[in-house]
Design brief:
It is a single chain. By secondary structure, this protein is α+β, with helices and mostly antiparallel strands. The protein is built from 4 helices and 14 strands. The strands form 4 sheets. Strands 1-12-9-14-7-4 form a 6-stranded antiparallel beta sheet. The radius of gyration is 16 Å and the shape is globular.
Amino acid sequence: MMQQTLFREQINLLPFNGDVLYMEKFFSQEESNNYFKHLAEEITWKQEPITMFGKKVMQPRLTAWYGDIDKSYSYSGITMQPLAWSDELLQIKQRIETIAGVCFTSALLNYYRNGQDSMGWHRDNEKELGSNPVIGSVSFGASRSFQLRNYADKSVVKTIILTHGSFLLMRGETQHYWEHCIPKTKINTGARINITFRVIV
């Protein structure tokens, strides 16, 4: 109940056309450490090629797709078939669902091995996600910068540091008007695992 109250009090991080809320230490240090260890060791990670500007390139990170068995997901020229939820993923999912107000069906996991692993600018606006997707993003491991950029006016940028055990919620019109990324960094960071929970319609 305390987490729910605190999250409702968070200020929208976007100045207009969207709704992004953020809470550090949503999970305790002990929980975060345990989840990171489980995810690093037990998740079936892959490095897959994606299509960019007509060319196939390897994604600069490891990925995995988990969720309800009938919920596949396609982006950038690849289609991912879901693996069955682990007990730990279900625990995380249930915790954030109390805040998000939706029942997530799937999760895209990203393993950033170091500061050179990254995620380019994009919007989560695939048709499988519906018109106004609710996306719950959980981070474990090294802190990394998360940037939001207005799609029409790319000079409008918001930077958030996603920390160990944090929870970020994107909803409303965010995916229509804002794109986001995890930029590379020359800082010698450790590994980071991010889970973005989604609803496939």
